[in-house]
Specification:
The protein is built from 18 helices and seven strands. With about 400 residues, it is an alpha/beta fold. It has a five-stranded mixed sheet with strand order 5-4-3-6-7, with helices on both faces. The protein has a two-stranded antiparallel ribbon with strand order 1-2. Belongs to the transposase mutator family.
């Protein structure tokens, strides 16, 4: 890439189908030529301000750019006072274009080896895994800032769930839980409120997570939807005592079927549907009584589970269809976790916590670009919530 740029040759090359930029593009010699000319001009300006100084040859260094690698001849001065600005000392990249490409590929779940291959194919520049890791590490300060950002005072709906990954620690891989909090703000738009990492999923750590959400500005959550983790509702109400905690009906059904013999599952599910699809809480309780009469002797563990959790399983019955549909299951946050799994499917495990968190953070940034529209029928939903939760939305909505 050291040849001089010839405009006529470039035009003929373009006509012949040679790409303008990228690896082996016709602009490659021009980038080198223009960069060296800019450095010469900088030195001339510098020398005009120093009487007892003059040029002192050139030094060469390899530059990486969007058109590949080239040897850049950097002019020097005798006194060593010249500090080039166009290409600074120790700078080895012409622009952040390649870095942005690396980050974009990383955010799509590509491995370091795949990223290195893509970059070399397109730009003609080889990046080691260590270099790519260093580039992606630039995301970590943004991640930390995002994790500590202030939140809105009121969220009508919040979902909380965890997903597990293998992370290397003290020379061995251990399973750790990523705690994800998804909220819907007063505008009806989805927002990931935070990511937290711990060795195990448990109510005690969820209490720390909820305390952090409170410290970051959340004063009220109307309805929180969660799975059936023991102690979860109590952990939420310790921090947000007015919050209604709806247990995920889908999780409860799945857990129930684990204890029902396969030969009875079809008939049992037919009867169970009459419970969770009832038109009201009272009607659901009548159906639950019938379910117990028919199946209670055979499957007491299942019936007792529904009875013991009924308060948190049945909140959704008092709401109209639009709100029921939103809160009766945690599927909405599980879909976020499905996206996480797509991002991490090429990774059997992670060398450290930051390597996982920075990837999930970048995946979130990509996902949230698509979350531009409010949830369906949001104007009606928020109006209904203002009635059901009288006074709790007035200040936030300026009613």
């Amino acid at each position: 890439m050291n040849e001089e740029f010839d405009i006529n040759e470039a035009i003929e090359a373009i006509k012949a189908g040679t790409p303008i930029d990228g690896k082996d593009g016709v602009l490659a010699p021009l980038i080198k030529q223009l960069t060296e000319a800019a450095l010469e001009a900088e030195l001339e300006t510098h020398l005009s301000n120093e009487i007892r100084n003059r040029k002192n040859g050139r030094s060469s260094k390899t530059m990486k750019s969007s058109v590949g690698e080239f040897d850049l001849e950097v002019p020097r001065d005798r006194n060593g006072t010249f500090e080039p600005q166009f290409v600074k000392k120790h700078q080895t990249h012409m622009s952040d274009q390649i870095e942005q490409k690396i980050l974009a590929l990383y955010a799509l779940g590509n491995s370091y080896a795949q990223i290195s291959e893509h970059i070399e194919d397109f730009y003609g520049v080889h990046f080691s895994k260590a270099t790519i890791s260093a580039v992606t590490d630039k995301v970590i300060p943004l991640l930390k800032e995002w994790q500590q950002r202030p939140l809105e005072k009121v969220y009508p709906f919040v979902w909380l769930d965890a997903i597990h990954y293998k992370i290397k620690e003290n020379g061995k891989y251990v399973s750790k839980a990523i705690y994800t909090i998804l909220g819907v703000n007063l505008s009806g738009r989805k927002e990931i409120l935070g990511l937290y990492l711990s060795e195990n999923e448990g109510a005690n750590f969820w209490l720390q997570v909820l305390t952090d959400l409170s410290n970051r500005g959340i004063e009220d959550i109307l309805i929180a939807s969660v799975d059936g983790l023991k102690g979860f509702p109590e952990a939420i109400n310790t921090t947000f005592p007015q919050t209604e905690v709806q247990l995920c009906i889908v999780h409860q059904i799945r857990n129930s079927l684990k204890y029902v013999a396969s030969k009875n599952q079809k008939e049992f599910m037919k009867d169970l549907k009459r419970v969770y699809q009832a038109i009201s809480k009272e009607a659901a309780e009548l159906e639950l009584d019938r379910l117990e009469e028919k199946w209670g002797d055979k499957y007491p563990i299942v019936i007792n589970s529904w009875r013991n959790k009924w308060e948190n399983l049945s909140y959704y019955f008092k709401y109209p269809e639009d709100i029921r549909r939103i809160i009766y299951t945690t599927n909405i946050i599980e879909s976020v976790h499905r996206q996480f799994r797509k991002l991490t499917k090429t990774k059997g495990a992670f060398p450290n916590e930051n390597s996982l968190l920075k990837l999930l953070y970048m995946g979130i940034q990509n996902a949230q670009k698509k979350w531009t529209m409010p949830m369906r029928n949001w104007s009606l939903t928020i109006s209904q919530l203002a009635i059901f939760f009288e006074g709790r939305l007035d200040k936030a909505l300026e009613l």
